[in-house]
């Protein structure tokens, strides 16, 4: 099976994984308010409870439910792609069904209008089913592969839950106002809301929220609000969830009659030490090329950017591919984005400005790209910083 196929289901799966990873990150909340039903908790207490719950033996408890991701970023019109393309996740609403029995017992189903894809992992065996191509891929998972791809969670040996919460808040409160609300309801369950509001005037982000289940402290919903918007620009969260072990039949699969069956081994790559070395080299290379202007929610990344070189590569690239999905045309995508750009100039020079609800990018004529969750005024100010 082509690796591009894995990219198509990998992005929606990653969207579902955000819910588990959000405990260690530090954004956002639920939209439905009700009568107070949960004991009051400070931000430190709430984060300590969440860290303690996930560091217990077994980590996240068994569960199943439906995750919905919605994006309204104010992007320019993008070329039409299939519903399973990563580009499709930048707008509209998308649904993922999840069954979680343990870190090695997972099923994710991604329904679309006409087709459905399923990823099923049960121990060291699994299946990937794509109804659009009538192809079932039998997966063999190497033991080290499962460890390599597990979502990193705070471990008791790293920090105590209280130490972890204090460190997170110490970093956050320098740039962020933090508060807790105990009156939310997500997927029919009482939840706490951890609300983070940037202090920086130049940030496009109004607030970032995370909803934690009032009983298990599992993150249930993440939302990001742009300034001036009553509705979230981006959100991902459960619309239905049950904290009981999924039935064994949810992890069983048999290819339909007439389906094409393929074989693939996951984790067929260099050992962890080699992978770590490669990542360290890549990080060092990026660090030398990227400059950061400002701090906190007003940070702007500045990196070299050759528009002509990018256009030439996009023109030579085959239609479709691993990065954007099989139906995407890289040149059409680039043309669409650049067509929406606004010409700007100032003491720093000239270039093209691209703005969405949450991110602004500036492509300068002197070969730089500046990008950050800031207003156009902030990004052009950063362009003058040498």
From TrEMBL:
InterPro entries: DUF2092, LolA/LolB/LppX, Sporulation_related
Domain of life the protein comes from: Bacteria
Protein name (record): DUF2092 domain-containing protein
Organism: Nonomuraea mesophila
């Amino acid at each position: 099976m082509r690796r591009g196929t894995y990219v198509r289901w990998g992005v929606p799966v990653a969207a579902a994984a955000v819910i588990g990873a959000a405990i260690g990150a530090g954004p956002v909340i639920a939209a439905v308010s009700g009568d107070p039903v949960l004991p009051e908790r400070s931000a430190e207490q709430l984060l300590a409870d969440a860290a303690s719950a996930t560091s217990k033996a077994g980590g996240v408890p068994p569960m199943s439910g439906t995750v919905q991701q919605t994006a309204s970023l104010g992007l320019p019109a993008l070329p039409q792609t299939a519903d399973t393309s990563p580009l499709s996740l930048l707008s509209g609403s998308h649904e993922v069904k999840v069954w979680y029995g343990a870190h090695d017992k997972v099923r994710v189903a991604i329904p679309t209008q006409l087709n459905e894809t399923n990823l099923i992992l049960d121990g060291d065996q699994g299946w990937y089913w794509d109804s659009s191509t009538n192809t079932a891929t039998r997966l063999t998972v190497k033991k080290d592969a499962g460890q390599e791809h597990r979502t990193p969670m705070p471990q008791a040996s790293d920090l105590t839950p209280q130490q972890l919460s204090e460190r997170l808040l110490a970093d956050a409160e320098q740039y962020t106002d933090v508060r807790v609300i105990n009156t939310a309801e997500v997927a029919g369950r009482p939840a706490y809301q951890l609300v983070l509001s940037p202090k920086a005037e130049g940030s496009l982000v109004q607030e970032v929220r995370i909803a934690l289940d009032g009983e298990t402290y599992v993150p249930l919903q993440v939302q990001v609000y742009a300034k001036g918007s009553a509705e979230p620009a981006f959100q991902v969260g459960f619309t239905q969830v049950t904290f009981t072990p999924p039935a064994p039949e949810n992890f069983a699969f048999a290819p339909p009659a007439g389906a094409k069956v393929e074989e693939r081994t996951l984790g067929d790559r260099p050992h962890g030490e080699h992978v770590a070395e490669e990542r360290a080299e890549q990080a060092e290379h990026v660090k030398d090329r990227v400059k950061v202007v400002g701090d906190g929610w007003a940070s702007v990344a500045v990196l070299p950017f050759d528009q002509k070189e990018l256009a030439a590569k996009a023109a030579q690239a085959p239609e479709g591919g691993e990065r954007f999905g099989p139906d995407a045309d890289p040149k059409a995508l680039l043309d669409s984005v650049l067509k929406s750009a606004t010409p700007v100039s100032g003491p720093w020079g000239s270039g093209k400005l691209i703005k969405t609800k949450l991110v602004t990018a500036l492509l300068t004529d002197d070969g730089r790209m500046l990008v950050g969750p800031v207003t156009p005024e902030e990004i052009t100010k950063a362009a003058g910083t040498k």
